[in-house]
Amino acid sequence: MGEGWTFAGEATQSGDSVTLIEGSSFCLSERGGDLVPGTPQGLFHRDTRILSVWQLRLDEEEVDPLTVIAQEPYEALFLGRARPRPGNSEATVLVERRRFVGAGMREDLVLRNLGNEAAACVLTLRVEADFADLFEVKEGRVAPRGQYGVDYGDGVLALSRQWRGESRGVRIVAEDAICSPDRLTFRAVVPPRGTWRASILVTPVIDGVETPTSFPLERPVEQAGPSVRTTEWRASGPRVKVGDESLALTLRRSCQDLGALRIFDPQRPDTPVVAAGAPWFMALFGRDSILTSLMALPLDPRLALSTAQVLARYQGVKTDPVTEEEPGKIPHELRFGVEASLSLGGTVYYGTIDATPLFVMLLGELCRWGVDPDAVRELLPHADRALEWVEKYGDRDGDGFVEYRRATDRGLANQGWKDSWDGVNGADGRLAEPPIALAEVQGYVYAAYTARALLAEQTGDPDGAARWREKARALKERFNERFWLPERGWYAEALDGEKRPVDALASNMGHCLWTGIVDTDKAPLVAERLLSPEMFSGWGVRTLATSMAAYNPMSYHNGSVWPHDSGIVAAGLMRYGFADHARRVAEAVLDAAAAFGGRLPELLCGFDRAEYAQPVPYPAACSPQAWASATPLYLLRVLLGAEVCVPHGVLRLDPHLPARFGALRLTDVPLGTARAAVTVTEDGEVHVTGLPSTLRLTQEPCPCNTWRTVT
């Protein structure tokens, strides 16, 4: 039996690079550990590169890399071999660089002399800090800005930059090091068969305030904050045993990566949220973080609640065309770097059309799972402000649909999840002109209305519940009248600025199944289209059909396969009763995960499985990426037919597991305030223990009609 979900994480290794992440800090390096100038490598903290060069030399020679041993997302051991000593043909000095990333970096250096003579060594670390913003580094446009400063003394090197009224700095402390403006020098004599050690602390300084290090020298590493949080994360989540070793590996990696992608607000360190992805998106994103926490809710309900709470804190209060903030709007992206004001208009950017209804959907899901009812109730005013935004700002022309047009030339042109510049186009390839009303966004609004109705029921407001349900009913009627293309047999991807259907065959309508806005009589055609050879690649559902003019399997949004997108499609298919279709999609995505060693990337190319026996990676995909990491967990829930509605006292389990999975057992699954265990035998029998007395087990839809709408 394979074990899932409880797993020791590891750093990300890809090609010749290694990524270490912890909270708002991450480090990109070569496999030898160096940070090389002129590359995107570096140590980043809160969206600023605080080390741009970090190169180790022994006696002015490079160290030959041997291997990288990485057992945690924030830790790696780089092993290298010094060049042979003068007069020797064999190398005798082993170099260990143990790196810990978290609120900066700690690096422990060890020289091991494997020879029979003492080794005299001069060890140097070349150090530079350009304090470039993450956006500058990612886009390859780093240029010197502002006034740079350097200060050094015994064992201390401090670098800084003043620009645009803000200060960024780094303080590097190493006892026994000789410091100069651009390097640390150690002179060591290593006894025969002996060792020499030194430790270096790299600490960020923001506006003159030094950030407390996560790995202080006086505290054992296992007692450091990141270590403790990782241990608690593993101990608190559910556990799964499954007969399929490939699935077990994928679930382990998913849990590991979600734990690594958690970030913590320094002002509220007990409120973790999930960042969008490593390395460039280690920030809170409205859409990404909401969808990820929705998918991973059975793994860690606190993550979903914290995400809702933090997004509520940044909910829009005024109108600002530069940041696209509007009253009640949920933000798209939170950044900390100085450059953010140039790239996004501010550190909080609101250019998203879907995060606001998704926020209300998240609150509804928290209610269904019985997560901290008092905390959810406190967020109801934010839900109402979000729905006020939907109806006032989201639907500016009053046609009953939510649409977007960016406020200035600085914002994102497309503001749904397919947010590339060419992400919304017709069957003939022509780009849709704004304002654009996306099909899936109308589905999110529909689900937000039904979620708000449930929340009204729970707070003793039956009139409010009826009002929200009527809004949902009317929207569903309008949507099916305007978006359905009977001559094509699918839903339009969107309506353009002239209210004309954008008639591409795309995966967006799978999200509409997920939310329940699709009419029952149209669902069979939608299901068939999504699993047609045009849409289904064998590794998942393509974003755009092969028959469309803009189709390109190597594009970002026009024919690629996104695991989270396929996961939502599978959930929508299962909701409408198309279990075989849903299982095909789920198995395809899990097969892709296995081909990637258990870790799904952000996206993969849309080539057909019959064409290439392995999924073709998309070159610039984030890995790990939050909603891709959450997708396998969500697919397992979909295949189990697992839904819970604590307010109505029902737990539904209707498994449609592939035979190859064998028997499956889940323990410590959070259900309200209880923890349950679920067993599915190889024969498909379901056994549940630990079910609270307030819940009954069923295979029927919930009375609130949140789940399956087609039998």
Automatic annotation (TrEMBL):
InterPro entries: 6-hairpin_glycosidase_sf, 6hp_glycosidase-like_sf, GDE_N_bis, MGH1-like_GH. Coiled coil: none annotated. SUPFAM superfamilies: Six-hairpin glycosidases. Residues 20-199 form the Putative glycogen debranching enzyme N-terminal domain. Residues 292-593 form the Mannosylglycerate hydrolase MGH1-like glycoside hydrolase domain. It holds the Pfam family MGH1-like_GH. Transmembrane segments: none annotated. GO terms for biological process: carbohydrate metabolic process. This is Amylo-alpha-1,6-glucosidase. It comes from Streptomyces echinoruber.
